[in-house]
Amino acid sequence: MPPLSRISSLRTLQKKSFHSSAHLKALSALALSRAENISANWKGTNATGGATKNFIGGEFVESLSSEWIDVHDPSTQTLLTRVPQTTESEFNDAVDAATQAFKTWSKTSVVTRQRFVLELQHLLRQNADAIASSIVLEQGKTLADAHGDLLRGLQVVETAAGITSTLLGDKIEVSKDMDTEVRKVPLGVCASIAPFNFPAMIPLWTIPMAAVTGNTLILKPSERDPGAAMMIAELCQRAGLPPGVLNVVHGGVPTVNGICDHPAIKAISFVGGDRAGKHIYERGTQNGKRVQANLGAKNHAILMPDANKNLAINSIVGAAFGAAGQRCMAISVAVVVGDTSVWLPELVERAKALHVNGGFEQGADLGPLISPGAKDRVTSLIASAEQEGGEIILDGRNFKAPEAYRYGNFVGPTIIRGDTSMKCYQTEIFGPVLVVLQADTLDDAIEIINNNRYGNGAAIFTQSGATARKFETEVNVGQIGINVPIPVPLPMFSWSGNKGSFLGDIGFYGKGGINFYTQNKTTTSLWKAEDAVGNRASVNMPTHH
Ligand code: NAD
User: Fold this and answer.
1) What residue stretches are annotated with the Aldehyde dehydrogenase domain (predicted)?
2) From the CB of 296, is ligand 1 less than 6 Å away?
């Protein structure tokens, strides 16, 4: 890593400011005051047009890059910040800082590392509103949902505090006076590459797990909304994490390829879409790294005739359209079994009743999509359903946003009756679109799910234990909900998406997370009690009897 004096001089050289008041006019008064607070109070991020910084060796440093990526508020297109394409030399500085820090961090006691996560959880709670505000500004989701984003990450931090129990090793006397002991030791420098849709939760899937197990980490947040990650990095520092244990770099493919290729990086955690995930998995594993990659999804909910109708409809509507459908565990397909199709008008009515609005607005249920490109993609997938003979029973393409948000990337809740051959079914839409399929029987519905290439999650709504049991046994996805629409396990368990939704062998957080970030080391030792006396060597092959 560069000496601190060089970092400070880089900072002064890079004083160029992007701030201009013209581009801020579109923000509401509430959004503007939150943006100004973020710019004034946080070192690594800016929400009023300034630069997002790298975090290298414990310093927030403005990049020397000549390539910058603009981040706009998805509900107004206001420029919030510019994110650097971190340069190769800055990236190498970050890896060097992590390599140096590993030498001491990996030797700190488990209680020291536990104390860090305990302090971090406290600071995250204290600063939840600021982090949630950054998420609303950059990502667009509603304030309540942004708090949920942080909370789900916070739960990983809280569970990581159990490291003094979860890292306990095994030991047994394998022969008289001979013990074998296994220790879980850290890997070294690890890397984490995050998607845009959970700007706080996904970085928090990896930061606490990597740190409590004694690793150091290079985090690359999504270049579309890195603000929450920068604030979390600052809180890690305030929580006592030594310089270099966590470093944050930015950018797109060049940074990702740097992570895949750098020989000092031992493991990569990736969460995002299929294309990037396959590339990272292949390139990372070819370079001898351990890789876990959570990918895209198409999650089905089966609606059985004996379901509690009210619970089922509310659950499906919430899980399909919450976060504007930009969740990897969103329900994007409802399979109506038998005559539950008669419930569709009610489902449409409840979807229609959702309020689509800017994320800070009172009563907003869902906000905009992340970018104009995402909006175009979603609306063209809806159009493809029309062309393929699908029936659009609720069309969100013509949603008219309130005047203040007329430039936002809004699409209203959309419901399409279709079949499994259609593009809108075959593709992960990642928008507020629910495809409804008809099945005659439970067997047919399970077959549809099992034939889908993805395997993140599936839910069933029924009041029959037998039906639920059959579903649970026969359905081939990793995370099953019974009367639960988004069955993401709490982090004492591990994420368990399967089929096309996951590449790798070891899941995120929980026991899986500990295994991912550690390798086993066994020691077999012999301290013969009888060696304390006697004077004759044994020449026989040791057989451990
Ligand atoms: P994305 O794949 O576009 O981006 C994810 C990360 O990969 C970003 O940091 C980005 O910079 C990088 N990246 C993008 N394209 C790349 C490329 N061609 N080569 C190398 N790196 C690249 O994903 P996104 O749009 O930010 O997030 C949405 C996707 O993430 C959806 O498919 C969603 O299902 C998935 N996701 C999955 C989970 C899960 O746990 N299974 C959770 C959240 C999101």
Assistant:
1) 61-522
2) yes
Tokens of 220: 């690359």
Q: Which pair of structure tokens corresponds to residue 2? A: 């560069």
User: Which residue in 190, 236, 260, 328 is the catalytic one?
Assistant: 328
**Ligand 1 pocket check for 456: Cβ under 6 Å:** yes
Instruction: Judge if pTM exceeds 0.85.
Output: yes
CA 253/CA 251 separation, integer angstroms: 7
The DSSP bridge partners found for residue 334 are 301, 436
Residues 6 or more apart whose CB falls under 8 angstroms from that of 538 comprise none
**Digit-coded pLDDT (tens) for 19-76:** 444 455 589 999 999 999 999 999 999 999 999 999 999 999 999 999 999 999 999 9
Residues 6+ apart with CB under 8 A from 252: 69, 85, 223
Q: Are the CB atoms for 111 and 164 separated by under 8 Å?
A: yes
> CB 517: neighbour CB atoms within 10 A?
26
Helix (H) or strand (E) holding 341: none
Task: Report whether pLDDT(9) > 50.
Answer: no
CA distance 354 to 318: 9
Q: Is the CB of 374 under 6 A from ligand 1?
A: no
Measured distance CA(484)–CA(466) in Å, rounded: 17
Has 190 been annotated as catalytic?
no
Classify 16 as helix, strand or coil.
Answer: coil
Sign of CA dihedral 271, 275, 277, 283: negative
Which amino acid, one-letter code, is at 1?
A: M
Mutate to test the pocket of ligand 1, among 249, 283, 328 (most ligand atoms within 8 A of CB): 328
Sheet holding 518-526, edge to edge: 170-175, 178-186, 518-526
Residue 16 CB burial class (10 angstroms; 0-12, 13-18, ≥19): exposed
What gap in Å lies between CA 460 and CA 509, rounded to an integer? 25
Q: DSSP string covering 296-316, please?
A: ---EEEEE-TTS-HHHHHHHH
pLDDT, tens digit, 9 for 90 and up, residues 211-242: 999 999 999 999 999 999 999 999 999 999 99
